[in-house]
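quick one, 258 residues, struct below
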Amino acid sequence: MLDLGVLTLDWLESMILPLTRLTAFFAAAPIFSQSAGTTRIRVLYAATLCFLMAPMFPSSLSEPAQVFGKPDLLSLMGEALIGVSMGLALQFVVAAVVTAGEQISMTVGISFAQSFDPSVGSTPILSQFLNLLALLVFLTAGGHTIVISMMVESIRTLPPGQVSLTDVESLIGFSRIIFKGAALLAAPLLLTLLAVNLGVGALSRATPSLNVFAVGFAVSLLVGFGLLFVLMPAITEQMVGLWQEAGSYIRPRLQGGA
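---
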């Protein structure tokens, strides 16, 4: 009985490194890191997935705890860094969508109608709508299953315990997707609304008695929401492209590539 207990404790010890990687990923990735998912739920997600992955782990009856090497502080920090960096790569897409929504809200004139979102702070309603749309696109396309399967596969291709610093430089370089994605999502609306504002300005010069603020605000709202409705398929397509770009960044790094 004592030997069985020792083997069980050693087996649990061998699960610490994979559990650290998965927990860090669930804590940083979108959807899983929403305010509705408490820390306890995220740890439960990671523990359940780690338990389901146990049959694919290499086994050693003589030294079960040495499968991935002896867990130490440096190994735990390395695994946490891998999980957090992969989650941040997905969060960059969410940041791009929120930034695009803020720019559109400012141009349309509804940025003053802000509410507090616990996941991203004080954001305009339009940013929250686009954020929810992006997460819905991610779930509808099966992105959550693809990313989780990549994390599971990384246990085999990039075994825990092999401490390697995450390529921070490439992660910082990939953060450009925030600005590039925001520009791609917001550019059609912003350019059209710029033309509308120029037209309203020219109209106010032609008829000085016209209340440019009342007319311009109403026209911007109508044109902005009309364009948003018309361009929604194109915006959704751009969101799919951003998620695919994030997946293309994550995959080689979970397979041990650069």
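DSSP finds ten helices and two strands in the chain.
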